[in-house]
Amino acid sequence: MGRILELSITQTDCPHPVITARMKGLSILVMNTVKLSEKKQMNFSIFRTSNQKSTKEAIRMLSKFPDLEIHEIVGIKKQLFSAIYSFPTTSALQRLSAFGFRIYPIFASDGIEKWFYHLSDENIAPLLSAIDDETTKLVDWRKLSVSEFYETYTQLFQDIWRIHQVEDLPPQNREILEKAVRLGYYDWPRRISLSSLSKTINLPKSTLSYRLRRAEKELFIQRTKRT
Hints:
The chain has helices at residues 15-22, 52-64, 91-96, 125-129, 146-166, 171-182, 194-200, 205-226, and strands spanning 4-11, 27-35, 40-48, 69-77, 80-88, 101-109, 112-118, 136-144. Helices cover 41% and strands 30% of the residues. The protein has an eight-stranded antiparallel beta sheet with strand order 4-5-3-2-6-7-1-8, with helices on both faces. α6 packs across α8 (205-226). It folds into two domains: 4-145, no CATH class; 168-226, Arc Repressor Mutant, subunit A (Orthogonal Bundle). By secondary structure, the chain is of the alpha+beta class. The model has no long low-confidence stretch (mean pLDDT 83). β2 (27-35) and β3 (40-48) form a beta hairpin. The two termini are 36 Å apart.
């Protein structure tokens, strides 16, 4: 299946690096980009903020980006919102579209946007040399194995899952479940055992097991109610 190229870039003509640089704690998952024309592109993205108050500010900042039009706020839940919006086609999209298959989602935070490419050619010099111009700068790049990419990819969605589902749990159970997810207790195969997890978070193994089961049950009940 080859290898994946991860590009970290800054852009002044794209809203994602610009507004994440201005708002601490804001991250964006760009789920899809449609090139409407040579001059216009449309995006569907999921935005995550640090708190509920910041969500309104993030929407305001997005709407104020030059020549950007928000077509629809698809949904809002506390620290998350999703939106469909269009803006002038960025220089990077125009120039890099010819360099193979770009994998979604694209991830933006702290003023940096990460792009993932499936490499069909080991010669990446033409792609790297095509990035820099007056609006776009290459910050870093690296090659990933497929397994490394999957780990990065799934972590992005785990973060969204935690906000969407776990926020409704009692604070004590939520904190324990978040640590268990972060440390790999729910990975397959597990990266940490229950015994090691109990030592890491300084909680007796029997108590930890009980609280995890309670949290899992509460999540299952929430999911059942929603469906």
